[in-house]
């Protein structure tokens, strides 16, 4: 387990940028020399004992994070939880897991085989959250998973790493609204996720979110290489609750659409 939140997020960031070359461009575009504050980072896994949501969350609980919310995505067959640190300048963490038993026998077999290849103690290692894949799958397996679950296919190709980082709009000095950020991104040639609208949510649910469509990177499967969606960048604007504090949770209906940022275009 990591000894500091800073070292964990630094390692996650370096791995993420390697998978998401456009992230550096977004940084330069929006940062204007300022440091960008990360609202949250997200992870994907399967609900199998060896590497389930709780096993990933343990890395954050050990660093002082606490569970703050639970979410169900029935259509995508996912469950998720989010975690926060008492120091609210630290990024929130959103971890989801696929309900493997709800898929076809064929998909279950591919996933079980992948997970069986992971060494028993791997999940406790300091670098597990940015360790990538621990298995070999064929392009055929990837396509089979893709037919039933984009999420499962993504994990088969990319393994364990940040699925996305998120710019906190509330901490940007030069932008007051998410729509302004979206406009700037589009002018610079970025493609945005339009599922459920460019902006998901809004003041009425205390959270507005948008995201780029994932970069495309080449993955070597056991039989051949394919160029497929990798990771994306999200942007979040939080609104105050009646008590004046910024809302710190997530909105399942919006998150459901954000998941689609890794869909093939």
TrEMBL record:
Keyword hit for Phosphoprotein: no
Cofactor: Fe(2+)
Listed Pfam families: HGLS
InterPro entries: HGLS
Primary enzyme class: oxidoreductase
Top-level division of the source organism's lineage: Bacteria
Entry's family note: Belongs to the 2-oxoadipate dioxygenase/decarboxylase family.
Name of the protein: 2-oxoadipate dioxygenase/decarboxylase
């Amino acid at each position: 387990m990591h000894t500091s939140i800073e070292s964990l997020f630094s390692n996650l960031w370096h791995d993420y940028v390697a998978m998401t070359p456009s992230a550096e461009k977004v940084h330069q575009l929006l940062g204007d020399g300022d440091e960008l504050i990360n609202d949250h980072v997200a992870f994907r896994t399967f609900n199998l004992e060896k590497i389930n949501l709780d096993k990933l969350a343990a890395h954050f609980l050990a660093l002082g994070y606490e569970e703050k919310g639970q979410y169900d995505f029935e259509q995508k067959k996912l469950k998720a939880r989010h975690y926060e640190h008492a120091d609210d300048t630290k990024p929130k963490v959103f971890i989801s897991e696929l309900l493997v038993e709800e898929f076809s026998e064929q998909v279950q077999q591919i996933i079980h085989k992948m997970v069986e290849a992971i060494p028993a103690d791997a999940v406790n290692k300091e670098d597990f959250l940015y360790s990538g894949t621990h298995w070999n799958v064929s392009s055929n397996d990837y396509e089979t998973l893709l037919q039933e679950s984009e999420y499962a296919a993504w994990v088969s190709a990319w393994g364990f790493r940040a699925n996305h980082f998120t710019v906190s709009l509330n901490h940007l000095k030069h932008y007051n609204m998410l729509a302004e950020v979206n406009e700037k991104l589009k002018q610079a040639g970025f493609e945005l996720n339009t599922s459920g609208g460019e902006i998901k949510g809004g003041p009425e649910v205390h959270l507005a979110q948008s995201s780029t469509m994932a970069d495309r990177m080449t993955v070597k499967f056991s039989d051949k290489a394919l160029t497929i969606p990798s990771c994306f960048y999200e942007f979040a604007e939080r609104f105050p609750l009646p008590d004046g504090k910024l809302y710190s949770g997530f909105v399942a209906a919006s998150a459901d659409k954000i998941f689609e940022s890794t869909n093939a275009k």
